[in-house]
Structures are given as C-alpha cells and as structure tokens.
Records
---
Amino acid sequence: MLPTLTATTWILLMVVAALCGIAKTALPGAATVAVALCTAVLPAKESTGAILLMLMTGDLLAVWSYRRDADFRMLRRLVPAVLTGVGAGALFLHLASNDSTRRLIGVILLLLVAITLIQRRSTSRRASDGASATQASPPAPTLEIQKATTTLATPTTSGRLSRLVYGSLAGFTTMVANAGGPVTSMYFLACRYPVKAFLGTTAWFFFLVNLVKLPFSISAGLVNTTTMSLTVICAPIVIVSALAGRRLAERMDQRVFEPVIVALTIISALPLLR
C-alpha cells in the first residue's frame, strides 16, 4: 500500500502526525481533526489503526510528563465501563464495512462536538448565574452562597451510572474512531480537577485504554504491517510536535484556538457522512 500513496497523501499524514503529538501535550481537540484527516486519505479501518499507533507514541511522552499527577483511584473505577465500551467497539469493527465505519466516525465526531458545545455553554451559564448571585447578596452570607453555587455547578460524577455512561461511551468511541477525548474531557472537567491532575489523569487514561485496545485492533486487522510502517515513518514528527506542544501550552490562548478546532472538526467530519 505504501508505494501507492501520493505526495499529497504523505503531506496530509505528516499533518496528522503533528496533530497527534500536539493533542497529547497541549491541545486535546487536535486529535479529533487528526482522526478526520486520516480517515479522508486512508481506508477507514487502516486509518483507525495508524491513528492508534501515532497516539500511543504521543502517550509515552504524555505519561512521562504527568507521571505523578494522575488520579489512579478514578481510573480504577472507570475500568469496567471502559472495557465494556472497548469490547462493543471491537465487535462493531469486526462486523462493519469500511463505508459504515467511515460514516459512524463522522456521526460520532459531530455528536461529540455538539456535546462539548452544550457542556461548555451550560458551564458558562452556571458560572454567570453564580457570579450574579454573589454580587446581589449581602456581604455576610457570601460564603454560603458560594458554597451553594459550587454544589449546583458540580454534576454528580462519582456515581456508578455516570461512570458507566461516560466510561462505556469513551471506550466505544476511542475503539471505533480514536475519538474518546471530548467524552473524557467533559467527565474529568465535571470532576473539577486542578489543571495538573486533569492533564495527568487524561494522559494516563488514554495510555491505558490504548494498551487495552491494541490486542483488539490487531485481531480486527487494524494494526498490521502497513499501519506499523506508517507509524515508524511518522513517529519522529509525533515526538517533535509533542515536545513543541509542551512549550506551546505555556503561551497559547485557548479561547481563540478552541473555536477553530470545533469549526475544523465539523468541516472535516461532514465529508465522512456521504
């Protein structure tokens, strides 16, 4: 397969590799764009395998960077639900054709964008309501109002049902489309982790999930000599972009970049639905 790839395809694969690296250390949303681009230039199942190996390359740098910051207790609680989702995704890949896999990836990407936008709007609205309540209250009970606002703004994320829903959906979407990032980001944000704990838990989550996915992906034919060859060629770009992403994260204005990522995700997902 490799000798038949055009120069344009190779350029796009280099962009995919760079996005995979940056996604692991600076911009999680970049992985969604990488998935869509890779699916546009390779058959759906081959693209899923290649993306998985590229992301695992970035995982190694991410877990080293945040090796002391993960909430391993939370990760252990999510294991049963995630394994259920991964198993369901593996079964789907065994039964689905390239066309149906491509369309499902497109639908999943659009749904995850919608979920993410709804969650952000809801969070902003709660923060605005909390600020208004605090300003309108007399000085004495301010602390009580802040406590109440915090309680209302924090979804119940520790229950079994929440872990089952989020974990299963994350396992399924990451198995089928390597697109579980928005689901887990929403869940970990709702857990109100500090920045380092959020990044560390996310890094270790995907490192462990991708390790679990690897045997399923090999069994389904997603990881093969072609995808491994592609990864070997693209790995240096993944590593360099991941290292650059660590520096970029210190200077980047996330408020500007996130809307761009959302727009690019929508644009790149639409062609997959045809």
---
Amino acid sequence: MKNTFKNAFISTIPVLAGYIFLGIAFGLLMNSKGFGLPLVLCMSVFIFAGSMQFVAVDLISGNPASLITVALTTIMVNARHLFYGISMIDRYKNAGARKPYLIFALTDETYSLVCNGYKGEKEGEYDYYFFVSILDHIYWITGSFLGALLGELLPFTIVGIDFSLTALFVTVFCDQWLTSSSHFAAIVGVFSAILCLLIFGPDKFLIPTMLLILLLISLGKFIRRKKND
C-alpha cells in the first residue's frame, strides 16, 4: 500500500500545483465577497466542485439566487460529470466501501488521472484510485484554506483571478495530449466545443457539447469494434 500511495502522490503532483493556486484564488474570491474561512472550508470539503464553487460565489453574494436557479445552474455547469460517471461504471464497480467517496471526488483532474489507468499490481488498483481522489481533495481544501487566510491577513486585488480555472483546464488538456497514445477524444472534444459554441452561443453550448462528444466517442468505439470483429 505504501508504494501505491507513492505512485498516487507522484501522479497527482501536477494537480497539486494547480489546485493549490486555484484553491487560493477561490479563497480570495470568497473573502472579497465577505465570506469567511468556515464557509470556504465547508464548500471545499462538502461540495468539492471547482468550477461550480467559483460560479456559486456570485449566486450566493449580493442578491442570492433562488434554489431553482442554483439547481439549474449546477446541472448546467456540472453536466459533464454525468458522462464521467457513466464511463466509470465498470472501473469502479468492485471498489467496495470506497465507491461512494470515489464517486463524490470525481473531479475533472481526478477523472483524467483515473482514465490514464493504474500500472501497478491488480490488488492495489482501487487503493490507487482512492489515494488519487483523496489527495486531490486535500490539495483543493489546502489551497482554499490558504486563500481565505491570505484574504483575511493581506490586501489583494482579484482582477483576472478567476481565469486560473481556465488555465488549469488548458494544462490538464495539454498533459493528456502529451501522455495519451490516442488523440481521438481530445480532437472530438475541441471540435464539439467549437461547433456548439458557434451554434448555441457561450451561454448555452455546454450541454449540447457534452451530448455531441458522447455521440461521437460512442460512434468511434462502435466503428472500432466493428473493424475488430
């Protein structure tokens, strides 16, 4: 198990670098809206949804949005996790007691690492997935804590700080492109996003993009299976 934890930690080092700074950005943003350390920690521990947490700052500050608006916004922002979950059904089906937490902690970056697979001994597979998930969670909580604390102690300007989330997504995409033997999924994702952005506009393109990605990747798998048969 010690080697499994070591492998998980090494795999999550890029996420560590991203989550610490992204978490700090979230903590600072929350502090700038008048929210203190306890709420920042509660959101990072129990919600743990980076992009949605940034969106939630505006939803709960100023004139708070209605519960229906919050629910619909959450579904739209995190719709991609529906497809993440579908693709993890077989991989997590024998995870045992770890399964609920693995499902809860399946962020974009954790999903990326899990999809790269486990290269060690078979009996350590689910321990590896668990360690990757909980380490990423700890990184995010730590970054959020530091951001909220810095916001309390030091004056900060937050202009442009929300771009850090976009920067992290670009970094994850580049890492997958460099390490993956097949670029089909990446190309499908970029093509689908651009096409749906042009058709539906920046406010409504996310869900159509996810549906198109699911359709094209499923079609690609079907064609490859037919060729192999």
---
Amino acid sequence: MRIAAMLLFLLVCCGQAHARTPQTLTPVEGDVAIGDLPMARGSALTNARMHYRTLGEPRRDATGRVTNAVLLLHGTGGTGATFLSPQFAGELFGPGQPLDVTRYYVIMPDNLGHGASSKPSDGLRARFPEYGYTEMVEAQRRMLVDGLGVDRLRLIFGTSMGCMHAFVWGTTHPDFADALMPMACQPTAIAGRNRLWRAMLQDAIRADPAWAGGDYVEQPVLGLRTAVDMLLLAGSATVPMQAQLPTRDATDAWLVDQIGRRLPALDANDLWYAVNASRDYDPSAGLERITAPVTWINSADDFINPPELGLSEQFAPRIANGVYRLISISPDGKGHGTHTWARFWKDDLVALMARSAP
C-alpha cells in the first residue's frame, strides 16, 4: 500500500470510514490457501496464500449462487486497503452510493506478491518464482471460487495494475463478470517509455551491491532510492505539481520529505517482483472475446499512459460493448492516481452498473 501511495500520491487512511456508515466500513479480513500455483516463467509457487478484505454480505439466488459480489483490484505495490481511503470509500460505499455496501458484497484482495498474500519477503526472497498477471488473475479466481464461494461477479473494477488484470479477466474468463471497469491502463504490451522506467527501476535495485543476489542483510538503499525517484515521476501530475511546487527550494524540500517517508517502507525483492509482473502482459489479441459491458477510463495527465500515443483509439473499437472516456487535464488532476479519486468518474460507474444490470 505504501508503494502505491508513492505512485499515486495518496495518503491511504486504511482505518478511516465514511461518517454515515462506520459500522459497515469495517472490513472483514481473511486468508485463502489456494494450493500450488504453476508459473509460466518457471517453477510453481507451493502453498500459495491470498489475503482479502470484504465489506457487506453476499446475497444468493434460489440456487445458492452469490449475485452481488464486486471485485476491486489495486495497483502495483498496493493492497486491498487502498480502497478504504476517503477519496474512494467516501464516494462509493455509503447508503445510496454506487457501491453501497448494504447492497453489494465488496471483495478487496491483496494480490499475489503484495500485502499479506504470498510474496518474496515472506522468506523465499529472490528464489520466489517469477509471477505474471496471468498467475495473479488465477490466484484471484481461486480465492473467489474456492475460498469465498463466488463464481460470478457483478463487477470487476481495477486500477493501474488492477486495470490490466481486468482486461486479463475479460479475455480469459469472459463469462465471469457482468461488467468491467478498467481504470488507467492500456490493453497491450508494455513498451516504450512505460517499459523503460520500469526497467530502470528494476536495474537500479539489482545493480546495488547491497542487493547481494536478493539475500541482503539490509535493504539496498541506493537502488531503492532510484526506485523511489522513478515512482514519483511516474505518478506525477504536471499541472498541479507546478502550482504546488513553484520554486526550486520548495521542490527540493518536497523530494527530501518524500524520500525520507517512502524509503523505509520498501522491500527490494517485493518491489522488483511487483514491477516485473507486467513483463509479458498483452491481452490485445483477445479483446473481441470480451462480452461484458466495459467502461474504460484513462486520464490525460497520466505519465504512464499518455494519450498522445493513440493506443486507446486503436483498441477501444475492438471492445464490442465498451465505452471509453479520457479525463481532461485540470489544476486539481491527480495524474496516474486519478483512478482512486472517485469524484472524477463516479457518474461513469453509475451508468455502467445501469447498462449492465442483469
């Protein structure tokens, strides 16, 4: 979650609930043992574990099938607790709001390699099998079906990495969800500048002599410092940043503060694996397989997904039941992190839930 805060400039207040419904915004947490998880890049992860948080209660039809489950998928380095931040939960989970938790069973996993789910820093370190988004989605599926008894979702909502997971879900399990809302990504291989900053971050970590093949005694601080720099740039929003940091001294002081707060929270192996997971992502060949209604949203001030590449115009027409929207640059924009500020796109979610109603 702390890495995600870096990337998105969010100060996630995990325990803060919406004032009108504090009792319903206290999540239930649990773990699901999902067995051995084969990896396309090598050996299997044995005894894999998925951690989750839920809000609300499952509702079942006459056959016992859960009908109101919503899956929220966080970004790189985050956890399910990201969605408990006021700018998200305060806009969506209260009475009468789009994901009112008295109506919906909201599921927020810590995805593979993150939070309290199986991850390198649990002990395997650099011997942890390299995972990709295909394995992460399979881990989510096992958590839902085998652990929570959910074999159908009302909605899959994903931010950044979770956005890419939503496209993987739609192309590999097209009948699993009634609706998809991917936020802040592209449904194609990560290349160009987007790949470059990720490769730079990974190289910096493993080029630090203190990394010691992943068996470091202390965190490789020099490599992680460069990683923080890259994450801060990737998550930046140029227009508000120019206003908020109008002088050299203000900018330099801000950077010192960010490094001091972010660096101690990181584990080098966990971060390297989390960024590496996007290496072979590319659902573009299967976009025609997506059958559920889709609302796909990016923001024009997103460093990671710049609109001038024209990728959205290339891929959106191939999504049969899709709607695409680009949020304009504004003085209060959040850059890549716009996806976690629900006020920018809450109405789009309302429209998607209406047009995908069973």
---
Amino acid sequence: MTKLKNIKVVVSDLDGTLLNPQHRISDYTKSIFQELHNQNYLIVVATGRHHLDAMAIIETLEVPVYLVSSNGARIHSPEKEELFSFNLNSDIVKTALSVDIDPEITVVLFKENVWLTNKLSEKLNAFQSELKYHPELVDYKTLEDFGAIKIFFAHDNHEKLVKLKDAVLVNSSEHLHHAFSLPTCLEFMDKSVDKAVAIMKVLEKEGFTTEEAVSFGDGFNDVQMLSSTGKGLIMGNAPVLLKETLPNLEVIKTNAEDGVAKYISSKILNREFVAS
C-alpha cells in the first residue's frame, strides 16, 4: 500500500466530492487546497462538467489547477491552455440518439461553447452558481450537426436511464462507453476517453507516477480514476453500489462534511486539527 508521505499529487472530482451540496467550494476546503499549493503538491480537478463551467468553480480556489473536464475529453493547464481535446463524430452521436428515448428524459449534447438540450432544466442549471456554460433549446429532429464532446441524459427515475443505456449500447458499443455520474445522470463518451487516461497524461507531463497520486470521487465515472491512483478515496455520500464495486477502497466523510479537505488535512498535510 502506498504510504501517504509519498503522495505528491491530489486529484479530485467536483460534484459530490470537492463541492458541498450547494455546489460550492467551502472556505475550509479552499484553505486546505491553498496549503497544498504552498507545500508544492500538484492539484488536478477531474470532472464530468464542461471546462467553461468547471473553470469558473476552480478559479475560486485561487491556486494553479490542472483541469480534466467532460470525463477526460478535455485537459487544460493551470494557465487555461488547452492541452488535449476529443470530440465525438456527428454520425456516432446521431446513431446513439436514434433509439427510442422516453420524452420525459432530458437529452444534452456538450458543445464547445453551449450545451444543446431538448428541454430547459432549472435542476441542471442549479449546478452552476454563475451561468458560464449556457443552454440552448433544440429540436433534435431538425438538428444537422450532432458533433459533441459528450452525450448526457438526465431523469429522476434511474431505471429509465438503465433501459436507455442498454438501448444505446446495442448499436453504439463499438464507439461509446457509459458512466452514471449520479443515479439520475447517464453519460456517454468515446471509448478512448476516461478521467484516468487524461490524468495519466497530466502526470506524465509533470513527471509523476500514478503511485504518487491520491484521488477522491463519488460516481461511477470515477471508477478507473480511483482504481488507478496510488490511493483512491470514496466519498461517504457515494452510492452504495459504488462502494460495493470498489470494496477495497477507504470510504471517507461526505461532501457536506468537507470530507476531501478533512482527509487531506489529517492524512497528507498532517495537521493536528480539522474543521468542526
């Protein structure tokens, strides 16, 4: 097992992990990440969010951060330079959306500057405290360019999304893989795209190994990331099924309890105190 004193890189998911239930970074978490920077740790945020959306969040940390966004389809340097990008081909997306989709399901395509959706959702907009990545209402029946960074479906009924996932994969399993970032959120990416793959690119660029990295996550889009780093930590608020999928990984406090920051404080920075 990797000793935490050998950790040089901290990797964290955003929603349900670094962010509290109000989709914000707490002052305590901010202070801990600033201390990480002061002690020369490399910081990587790896999220399913679009980079425009995620950048507005990580800027509040006020420290240099590598950003892996759209589950690995984009990598940006701390200076916001795009280091890697991958888009889904229009025909591949069109095939994926050609299945029978329950009209109650929200269908989203992540584009470079806007997200296309079949219905405007206040629930999805609530994930952005400031709307930096704007929605655009479209009729997919008349859309011509289906090229996208990733495909996203949302519905409160998990079983409906499972049924849709199975239907999409019948014709698209050669090109796409899926992940439930939340039980209510189903995402499809190109098979070559994953948070873990993108994180490896960052580590190679900076001269670190996966054994020198610790990662924090709460969703099924975090599985490979959590499994591939020297130490993977599962949030206490993560779905039971994720904890059962990775039974050897430690479960820490919830995002509502600043679980990531408290773990870093006590296990990596070796502070004698944690926030109450």
